[in-house]
Amino acid sequence: MRVHVKFTQYDLLENRSSVIADGNGILSGNRLLYPEKENPSCRNEILFEEERIVLKRSADVSSETQLLKGKPGMARVISPYGEMFLETMLERFCRSESVWEAVYRILSDGEPVVYQRLVWEITPLEDDLHAGMKNID
Predict the structure, then answer these.
(1) Which helix (DSSP H) or strand (DSSP E) does residue 2 occupy?
(2) Does 51 have pLDDT greater than 70?
(3) How high is the pLDDT of residue 126?
(4) Does the pLDDT of residue 133 top 80, yes or no?
(5) DSSP letters for 28-76
(6) Are 11 and 116 spatial neighbours (Cβ–Cβ below 8 Å)?
(7) Coil, helix or strand for 128?
(8) The overall pTM is greater than 0.85
(9) Is 91 a residue whose pLDDT tops 90?
(10) Which of 3, 61, 84, 123 is 20–30 Å from 131 (CA)?
């Protein structure tokens, strides 16, 4: 199903927020696909299940972050400089038809290097509305 996605990232360490995506995407069950607003060639895939959330970002610096309910997960970052693995901790999450939300930390040597609240606002589009979907299809 084609949807409008507004994805806001709240940095809880720096107390600031950024709108990363505000455009069209595709929702299929527990899976959401969308491009970034400032970098349309960068694709994001979110898998939001009952026991885990998987965040995938495909760009010149790519990442796959596994957030697991009740236990540590792993973030894998791939850049031109190599590959890095960091521990993740999912603090809380919730999902409704129109909003997906997760709060998590990425740890290095037990200390948070990332502490974020992620919010995806999802609105269904009419079937014949295809504006902006060239980067998804």
Answers:
(1) strand 2-11
(2) yes
(3) 77
(4) no
(5) ETTEEEEE-SS-TT-EEEEEE-SSEEEEEEESSSEEEEEEETTS-EEEE
(6) yes
(7) coil
(8) yes
(9) yes
(10) 61
